[in-house]
Amino acid sequence: MNFLILTWQINSIKLIFKLLFFNLKKKETNIDDGTATNAQTSKQSGKRSS
């Protein structure tokens, strides 16, 4: 039981770091590409999450 909780915590931390890193990468590309591509990527991420 304890081991399962530990692995779950590690996995959730990994997921949070992935999301943070992905958001940072998106912000960097937004500066380069502009707002038009930003709107497209936000639509795609919305489809993925649902």
Q: Topology, please?
A:
Elements: H1 2-33, H2 35-49
Tags for this model:
0% strand; 50 residues; 2 helices
Radius of gyration: 15 Å
Q: Which band does the percent of strand residues land in?
A: under 5%
User: Outline, from the CA principal axes?
Assistant: rod-shaped
Q: Would you tell me the structural class of the helices and strands?
A: mainly alpha
Separation of the first and last Cα atoms: 31 Å
Q: What's the total count of β strands? A: 0
Enumerate how many helices there are, as a single number: 2
Order of helices and strands: HH
Low-confidence segments, given as residue ranges, are none
Please give the share of residues in helix.
over 70%
- Describe the sheet with the most strands: none
Mean pLDDT across all residues, rounded?
A: 75
Structural notes for this entry:
The chain is mainly α and 50 residues long. The chain has a domain at 1-28. 94% of the residues lie in helices and 0% in strands. It is built from two helices and no strands. The chain has helices spanning 2-33, 35-49. 0% of the residues are buried.
Describe the structure concisely for a colleague.
The protein contains two helices and no strands.
